[in-house]
Design goal:
482 residues; 3 domains; BirA Bifunctional Protein, domain 2; homodimer; Translation Initiation Factor IF3
Amino acid sequence: MGNDAITPREKDFSQWYLDVIKVAELADHSPVRGCMVIRPNGYAIWEKIQAGLDRRIKETGHQNAYFPLFIPESFLKKEAQHVEGFSPELAVVTIGGGKTLEEPLVVRPTSETIIYSMFSKWVNSYRDLPLLINQWANVVRWEMRTRLFLRTTEFLWQEGHTCHTTEAEAEEEVLRILDLYADFVENEMAVPVLRGLKSDNERFAGALRTWSIEAMMQDGKALQAGTSHNLGQNFSVPFNVRYQDQQSQMQYAWMTSWGVSTRLVGALIMAHSDDAGLICPPRLAPLGAVIVPIWSSDEDKAAVLPMAQTIADALRPFTGVKVDDREQMRPGSKYAEWEQRGIPIRIEVGPKDVAKAQCVMVRRDTRKKEFVPIDGIANAVRAEHEQMQRDLFQRALDFRTTHTREIDTWDEFVAWCGAAQGFGLAHWCGDSGCEAKVKEETKVTIRNRPIEYVQGTKKAEPGRCIKCNGASAYPVYWGIAY
Amino acid sequence: MGNDAITPREKDFSQWYLDVIKVAELADHSPVRGCMVIRPNGYAIWEKIQAGLDRRIKETGHQNAYFPLFIPESFLKKEAQHVEGFSPELAVVTIGGGKTLEEPLVVRPTSETIIYSMFSKWVNSYRDLPLLINQWANVVRWEMRTRLFLRTTEFLWQEGHTCHTTEAEAEEEVLRILDLYADFVENEMAVPVLRGLKSDNERFAGALRTWSIEAMMQDGKALQAGTSHNLGQNFSVPFNVRYQDQQSQMQYAWMTSWGVSTRLVGALIMAHSDDAGLICPPRLAPLGAVIVPIWSSDEDKAAVLPMAQTIADALRPFTGVKVDDREQMRPGSKYAEWEQRGIPIRIEVGPKDVAKAQCVMVRRDTRKKEFVPIDGIANAVRAEHEQMQRDLFQRALDFRTTHTREIDTWDEFVAWCGAAQGFGLAHWCGDSGCEAKVKEETKVTIRNRPIEYVQGTKKAEPGRCIKCNGASAYPVYWGIAY
């Protein structure tokens, strides 16, 4: 499993992560502070993520649109919590066309304010609602400590923005999207997630309520993979997003916003990969299979190359495929390179295989090797893809299960923090001060309140707050977050 | 053909253009100076454009990647012509995270400099070439006079950037892309284009040579629809993009860049639409057909609605389709609305049609009405789409032909300028000063030198420059440009 170019996970997880990104050529640091370059191999995964999400977003009735990159500074100030949350992170354009601007323009850190200034023009009657809009865009937040994919000054994302006639309908939308995100991340990325409600401390700046999906990485840390916000009327009032209801009364709209970003690529890397490089789930792999023909003479080459092409043609209808026919490179070096890049299936064809009308199929994650008859190769690869997709999910789920602990007392909590592995399920009184103290002393924060408890589909399990011993209706998830 | 909400083309072409955008809900002005909002109907067309181009760009071996929005100011200054060309148009970030930046960051007006700073890391050996990269991104140019889609401070585009070992290979790439653009614009957008070489005055800032495709709008003006630049070694030298050749010598790479933008949406509007609203070519129409069921009683409704759904199901496999079953809206109002939005085919189904197992099919551009049996509706719509696609192209081509004139003398040229209709094919000595004088006196510029003459596939036709009477090898295209 070793690979000289990659630091083992056990030794240094952070360095391992950067090494995998480097050898798989997923991204690169840029000369611009905190900004990354997404290289073709990484961008191809992002395109697969976009396609899977975009389909789901459209199927649920949303339409894509595009709004300006720049936001007048005054817009951000219209919602008090919003500006407080984002002010420290802003990049500001003060010069345009050689002149100092009268009003500085903020490079969007998120687009609520600029989008809702347009919604106020577009929404007039209850007939205009619900308004269901999504945007694919770049955003900028001036982060102090950056990390490829996970936290960069500029990142790519989608942000949904919707208007509704009632609070209940807005909450339905928020939960529909939470389920949409969970469905995508679990079924396409093969990463299990916990759905739940964020605490007030971790809520989006300007929201009534923020729901999240939380994933566990192989180092036991939590990664918030997506958020869905019920904004209530916090933005419709200052931005005057109003509609005339069926009784001809003017009403403020109920709004939501929600987003996922290129940090999902980071989640994918940290959830599945190993010390040999990237492991990409088949459904998100731009290349589902690579075929390495093996020859040591021109005669062999003339036999194996057409066979490699035949196999490629058989696979192409359902997956990306490449024949690696590079000269002057040993097959072993090719294997290592494709392993680093996380291609799910490798197929080897040598002269002996051609004679037997077979090939060797090797799975990236398990390294299971199998001889497969050429005429059954398409079905074999398809079946192995499906099995690998299921196995990756199950492995990640098992990992999360074995790294999640119920914790009853503060002493136990502190001991667990020392180990800092995984999620703790522990009681909390609901007080922001208690949560802040825990964070200060241990770096651990509340990831979310399990949706089953919040919605009452699971019976409350009263207990005592691990920090203050106050009453608690149910335990919540704790962890150290990326 | 009249429509109260739309100014007729004859009366005021500019206002007509804005009116079509408004009634078709393609875009909207934003509160940010010169920036537009692309509304869902407009963005859906852009997504179709992206899909058609992206497929062609990938089929020719290019890979997508993503580079930072911000460019250190010093990078832009490394190529003298480049900085001179773009300096007046820059938006500059001077504050980040609450602090004044040591080096201001320019919001990319185009990405040559930031991308080539990365290429200098990635390119080491001749084995790394050709390097064929494309980026989909937003860019910002501080324009003084803006116009929805055609010229906005921020716009969306793709920009290709490639490195090659020889000048000839770079020129091949530049021409391959020019053909790719022409193929897309002619076959998907149904807009005929003239391929050719830009004059020095109109060349990209920093390029050796710029090729363009030029389209004619219904007011006779020219719209530059795409450009492809041979950058020579103008950027590889200052950005140190070097490779070791097969003889172990270090060589500077030969580079190209090329792009098309959201202005293509403007071209589509102005090439085809009429006084009733947008006309969208079927291949780029997000909705290829709309079905309007007609009823005046609950009984009728129970008969026509299922039939409308049956038709929709038959069309869905090959085109976007919508059943307009809105209550309390007369069919006539629905027809007008879908005409404004440019949906290629409208299908009307009333109770009598249901009884006869037929429907009425109406084509947007010709308004040709036809009764079609329900069981043949899919083939009928598909055939009509194909015919409409061909007809739109032919109509635009005929328009261009009748609005293109050969002009031999300066007097003739000046008289033609007064009419300001279409392209003039007239001789030019090749001198930038001559071109500048013509522009100053008439607003007319050289659109391009026809590729057939430049490449010598068409025999030279010597003549005399209309301005200075100097020698000229072949005539060039002149026009007033958007």
